[in-house]
Amino acid sequence: MQIEDLAIVCERFTTSKLRTFDDLSTMSTYGFRGEALASVSHIAHVTITTKTKDSTCAYKASYSDGVIIPAKPGGAAEPKPCAGNNGTQISAEDLFYNVPTRRKALKNATEEYNRILDVVNRYAIHNEGVSFTCRKVGSNTPDVHTTTSVSVVDNIRTIYGSSVANELLSLEKSYPTYPLKVKGWISNANYSVKKFVMLLFINHRSVESPAIRKAIEAVYSTYLPKNTHPWVYLSLEMDPRNVDVNVHPTKREVHFMNEEEVIVTICEAIQDRLGDANVSRNFLTQTLLPQVSVKSRVEDKKQGPKVYEYNQVRTDSRAQTLDSFLVSASPYTISNSSSHKRVKVGIDSAGVDQRMDIDSDGERSDQDDFVDNDEGAEGGSPSTPGSLLNKIGQFKRDPLKKSNDNGGSRNQGRSSSNGSGSQRTGGESSQSTLRTKASRVEVKLTSVLQLRDEVKKQGHPILTPIFANHTFVGILDNQRGLIQNELALYLINYEAISEELFYQICLRDFSNFGYIRLSNPVSIKDMVHMALDDEQELMEKDEWPEELKPKDEIAQTVANTLVARKEMLKEYFSICITNDGKLSAIPMMIKGYVPNLEKLSDFLWRLGSEIDWTSEKGCFQTLARELAIFYSTQPERVEDPFMDNGDDDDEKDENEGESDHNKKTPQEIQDALFQHMVSSLIFPALKRHFIPPKALIEQSGMVVQVAQVKDLYKVFERC
Length: 719
What we know:
Layout: H1 36-43, E1 45-51, E2 58-64, E3 67-69, E4 80-82, E5 87-93, H2 100-105, H3 109-126, E6 133-134, E7 144-145, H4 152-160, H5 162-165, E8 168-175, E9 180-187, E10 197-202, E11 205-206, H6 210-220, E12 231-238, E13 243-244, E14 255-256, H7 259-277, H8 294-303, H9 336-339, E15 356-359, H10 388-392, E16 410-412, E17 422-424, H11 446-457, H12 463-468, E18 471-475, E19 480-485, E20 488-493, H13 494-508, E21 514-523, H14 524-539, H15 551-564, H16 566-573, E22 576-577, E23 582-588, H17 600-609, H18 616-631, H19 641-644, H20 649-654, H21 666-689, H22 694-698, E24 703-708, H23 709-716
Parallel strand pairs: 10-12
Antiparallel strand pairs: 1-2, 1-5, 2-3, 2-4, 6-7, 8-9, 9-12, 10-11, 13-14, 15-21, 16-17, 18-19, 19-20, 20-24, 21-23, 22-23
Helix pairs in contact: 3-4, 6-7, 11-18, 13-18, 13-21, 14-15, 14-17, 15-17, 17-18
């Protein structure tokens, strides 16, 4: 570097390789914008020492924020003569000294040094005519040192050892069609390790290509033992215009034109080279000593390596949840004084009866379009005797009807008026039900398939296995619960997470829902009118605002909108609406689960106001989201009969001597039933079907790790 260039070398774009706009398509250097040196000078103390061949001495300059600065305070801001060798030396010290937050983000020094060492190793192997040296500060011997006179194999032997270098096969091919030049060294069939080592260079830049990596592993799988991998160094030279480096912010991952054809060509070349060298194989054997019996060796093998207590994941078929350790009475026990009083929950005005006839025969398939592994053992109905719905006492099931004499058994296919997906027969004496499981409808709508793909792509890579392999621990309250995965204990907000769960269920079981039938269909207009009344209360106004349409007109418009689309709602979402504007059934998302019907009026109101009816994809997406909001977990509010009736004071006094569980309020009983339903239905569904989105981790308090076995072991010295 000339001394005249030292004054501007750290300014932005000074070292740019671009001369014209067309250079962008043919650039083959490591960088081209000319901002790396300028950026480093803003966050580190940069010193450059340079000497040309015809110069009598070297020159040294210091930089900060892109400009040259004096070496000492009060000095001149210009290069200083010094002793030095031919060439240029750039040093950057105190990295991120002025950005403490960014400096804290760096991991420990050993890990950062190993990353630097990995980069130096790669380029040392690729550039056989260049000497590379990498030494940690304070060490007398370098960790990497190569000379200019050795070959690629010698550099590989120096860095990776003789075990690799002695088993290498040269690979060199040229393909004018693409055009493409392939050069490198690959391990033969006698060499295998537990970790795949691949050094890939494209146009002399160290890059990554998952597609090439997987293809090469597939080629070696026929030659190497199971769960072992090869060692591969490849250098590809191709037209820079065919390479797209703007795939990843770090520019490590690249794509290129004719990628599939090029990968096939490379794999064929590797296949041919391995086939030619597969004349003999080496296998390691061990002589069995006469005094050692085979039986004892097998027994020793069964024992396996010792697992320390703080690393052991304990599983037991008799494992209990957190609730079993709490000393409390059964939540289902109700005192005699209140057992004959009907607890009103949810909506009971406008002639709406919350009792429902659940058509459990319209059950959906357990087939999962998002997750391949389906653990059916975790699912099912609540484990307590009898249905949870019967314990709440607010639902009913119609008695089974006898088949008519003329038509035989009553057939209730999806094309029938009631929309049930099963066939029922029975008698009053036997009370039996025969089910004929309907075939699952295959969804081919592009919009639904796109929404499913979006769910898969947005899945969080860390949280997904945590939810899929978790063990339920217990319920804390009506919003939060505890789960365990491996050695960690997590606190999750299942109320918010359940909304995303039901959204995914809507997309997965699209057009395949069962039915939850209302015993008495409810008027959509009346329900929307109730939602508008609640809206007026929230606005704290005595009268409905004049600038808005009257409530009756709004309610009628919503009812007309839903009636006009009742066929679509029934076919795709199992929402049944009669011709006179009454809701008769809602979809069964999870067998045995019934949403909080207090939200029914808001749900119907939002169906008329929040759904995008203009586009197919937008319609299905917003409908699924509104259903998810409606079905998300939320306990019902129960009025205490003693709070409304002062005449029951004597009755309360009579019960003062009873046990604690008889003193539970109706709301406490309802909360216990709600939490039991969540633990037996929602958490198994999370384990089988849920794909947590990446946005979930960004929300505070959704998933929080509260404990780690290793940390607890340090405190208690036991697990």
